[in-house]
């Protein structure tokens, strides 16, 4: 049970994130939902890469035991950087919309239709 | 090693490096002068296109090109001391990738040429060209990578750059609204793809597409991953029922960018086909997945065209037609997928349906790009995109009118233009699979024609309106940009058979041949 705790957390975070993205009306809150989803995905990949008793793969200082494959950590680093870029872009869009429309409520930002 | 050898050996890497280099030096070079910057972007785009053509020639002449980053030899995917696991990032350019690369190169050159004058009225164009080259790098990366995580990275580069481009003209907030919609959906889709990648990595300890394909078991987890990826990429290519970002994003982006967004959507379509055909292939239930793709395709065709008919905004109307045309590609390739396990049916009509679908990707990029560019030229000259306010432009914008006619007839599938060539292949083969689907496809084509006749009539026909008496023909660079695409529409319509034999058939066989893909990466597996 305890073994699966990270994966249970992933499921809970995914649900929280999805509900936030789908139900909230404020752009900033939608962004927070996206970030929670992103964290869930990152946690999922990092948890997959965990090996009990593994050693960090630093060649110069590591004892000659089984080393952990560093790929999942590298993936998550990349994904975090992408997440930062996305957040920055969404926030800047929210700023422009606040200036032009005077609101960040997506129910009121509805001039495109048809 | 001579310079030419260097270029040829490293072409897959240069395809990404050159656009990125062009993108990030653009703001610096823009400080010197506008002319220098224009020469820089045009020169870099031509170099990128030349590299894409060199690479494509090599692929079609001698077979798939494998490029391994940081390895001792560029084709050494599996390091000798790794125990048979390909750990490096690889680019795997087979005929299908090269085919998509050619599309991106041709549309990229025409769009850039067009933007030199269509965007010249605006300030701070450095950002525009930077984002444009990032899009180019994203598309080339997506179509040539052989690593599923790398695919995700390029997908995100493309999404972020596209969102920036859609919002580029703030347009009183409207463009930003469209871009926000696009960006939130893209990010959601990308996270789904990331979950699927996590599942593959957890199951097969590999990120390499060929390695995953070789170890594919089609367990419950693989089904979940397939659903996640298909949902995300179907949304990114604008298929119904997740198409609602398309009309907003396509109509609010600058026209030149819209023409390239078509290619960007098709890169997602490529990703969808690559996952389904190369990673899963016959291990999955091809009939079910094939039918899902067919149904998505038919829905896109019908909903797209019916939504297009009542539109009053010229670019919004064309955007709905883009949704509808994406349906044809999904239909053709879906039929090919549904009969993939059955050798007799595949050789009877499966390959032909796929050839039709894949050929339609190429044709769609050409004529849809052309139509969006003509719409952009009209909006550039008269300043409105409302069809009810236009009229009589045929008197002054003669060349634009000719290009529009070419594009409109091609999209409606009228011989002898390229749209007819690919649609005929789809009709013939789909009719053998299921006659009702073929009839729906033909009806949609007729509705498309009806819709474009209406647009043509309200934009170009009628007496010259007094308020547009001063309207001039579009500037020369814009006409050249449109002319390139129009010439290809006519050429490929007049001589479809050599194109199908030389480009499309190898691409389809590369896509369907999972064993060949695995063998060329992992070596004789």
Q: What does this entry show, briefly?
A:
The complex is a heterodimer of chains A (114) and B (525). Chain A has helices spanning 5-23, 27-48, 71-101. With 114 residues, chain A is mainly α.
Features:
heterodimer, A: 114 residues, mainly alpha, Helix Hairpins, B: 525 residues, two-stranded antiparallel sheet, globular
What CATH calls the topology of chain A is Helix Hairpins
Biggest sheet strand order of chain B reads 1-2
Number of distinct beta strands of chain A = 0
Largest sheet of chain A, in brief, is:
none
- Please trace the helix and strand order of chain B, writing H or E for each element: HHHEEHHHHHHHHHHHHHHHHH
**Structural class assignment of chain A:** mainly alpha
| Strand fraction of chain A | under 5%
- Number of contiguous helices of chain B: 20
How would you describe this protein?
The complex is a heterodimer of chains A (114) and B (525). By secondary structure, chain A is mainly α. Chain A has 3 helices and no strands. The longest helix of chain A has 31 residues, at 71-101. The N and C termini of chain A lie far apart (51 Å). Chain B has a domain at 285-494. With 525 residues, chain B is mostly helical. Chain B is globular and about 75 Å long. Chain B has helices spanning 3-9, 11-30, 34-62, 95-118, 125-144, 148-166, 174-204, 209-215, 220-236, 245-252, 255-280, 286-308, 314-338, 343-382, 398-412, 418-433, 435-460, 476-494, 496-512, 514-522; strands spanning 65-68, 90-93. Chain B contains 20 helices and 2 strands. The mean pLDDT of chain B is 90.
């Amino acid at each position: 049970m305890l073994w699966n705790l990270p994966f249970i957390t992933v499921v809970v975070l995914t649900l929280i994130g999805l509900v936030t993205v789908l139900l909230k009306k404020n752009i900033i809150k939608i962004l927070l939902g996206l970030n929670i989803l992103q964290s869930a995905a990152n946690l999922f990949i990092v948890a997959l890469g965990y090996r009990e008793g593994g050693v960090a793969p630093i060649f110069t200082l590591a004892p000659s035991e089984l080393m952990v494959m560093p790929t999942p950590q590298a993936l998550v680093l990349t994904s975090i950087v992408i997440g930062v870029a996305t957040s920055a872009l969404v926030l800047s869009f929210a700023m422009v919309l606040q200036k032009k429309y005077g609101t960040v409520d997506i129910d009121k930002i509805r001039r495109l239709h048809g | 090693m001579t310079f030419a050898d260097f270029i040829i050996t490293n072409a897959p890497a240069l395809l990404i490096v050159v656009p990125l280099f062009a993108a990030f030096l653009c703001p610096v070079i823009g400080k010197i002068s506008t002319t220098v910057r224009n020469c820089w972007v045009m020169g870099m785009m031509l170099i990128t296109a030349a590299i894409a053509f060199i690479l494509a020639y090599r692929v079609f002449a001698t077979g798939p090109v494998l490029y391994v980053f940081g390895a001792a030899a560029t084709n050494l995917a599996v390091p000798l001391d790794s125990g048979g696991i390909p750990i490096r990032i690889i680019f795997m350019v087979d005929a299908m990738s090269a085919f998509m690369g050619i599309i991106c190169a041709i549309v990229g050159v025409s769009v850039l040429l067009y933007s030199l004058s269509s965007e010249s009225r605006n300030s701070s164009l450095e950002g525009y060209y930077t984002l444009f080259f990032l899009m180019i790098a994203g598309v080339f990366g997506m179509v040539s990578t052989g690593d599923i995580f790398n695919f995700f990275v390029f997908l995100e580069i493309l999404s972020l750059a596209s969102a920036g481009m859609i919002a580029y003209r703030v347009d009183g907030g409207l463009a930003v609204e469209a871009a926000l919609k696009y960006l939130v959906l893209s990010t959601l889709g990308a996270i789904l793809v990331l979950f699927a990648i996590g599942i593959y990595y957890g199951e097969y300890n590999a990120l390499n597409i060929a390695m995953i394909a070789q170890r594919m078991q089609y367990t419950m987890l693989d089904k979940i991953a397939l659903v996640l990826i298909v949902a995300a990429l179907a949304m990114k290519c604008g298929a119904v029922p997740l198409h609602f970002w398309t009309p907003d994003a396509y109509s609010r982006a600058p026209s030149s960018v819209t023409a390239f967004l078509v290619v960007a959507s098709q890169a997602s379509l490529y990703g969808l086909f690559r996952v389904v055909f190369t990673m899963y292939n016959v291990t999955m239930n091809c009939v079910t997945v094939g039918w899902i793709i067919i149904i998505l395709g038919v829905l896109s065709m019908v909903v797209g065209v019916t939504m297009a008919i009542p539109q009053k905004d010229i670019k919004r109307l064309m955007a709905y037609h883009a949704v509808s045309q994406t349906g044809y590609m999904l239909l053709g390739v879906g039929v090919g997928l549904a009969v993939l396990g059955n050798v007799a049916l595949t050789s009877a009509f499966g390959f032909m349906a796929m050839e039709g679908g894949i050929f339609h990707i190429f044709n769609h990029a050409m004529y849809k790009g052309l139509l969006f560019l003509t719409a952009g030229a009209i909006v550039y000259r008269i300043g409105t995109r409302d069809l009810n306010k236009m009229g009589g432009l045929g008197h002054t914008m003669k060349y634009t009118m000719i290009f529009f006619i070419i594009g409109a007839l091609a999209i409606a599938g009228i011989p002898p233009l390229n749209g007819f060539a690919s649609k005929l292949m789809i009709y013939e083969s789909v009719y053998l699979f299921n006659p009702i689907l073929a009839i729906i496809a033909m009806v949609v084509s007729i509705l498309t024609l009806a819709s474009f006749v209406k647009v043509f009539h309200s934009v170009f026909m009628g007496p010259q309106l007094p308020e547009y008496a001063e309207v001039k023909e579009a500037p020369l660079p814009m006409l050249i940009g449109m002319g390139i695409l129009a010439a290809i529409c006519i050429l490929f319509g007049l001589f479809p058979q050599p194109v199908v034999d030389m480009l499309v058939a190898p691409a389809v066989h590369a896509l369907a041949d999972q064993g060949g893909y695995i063998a060329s990466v992992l070596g004789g597996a």
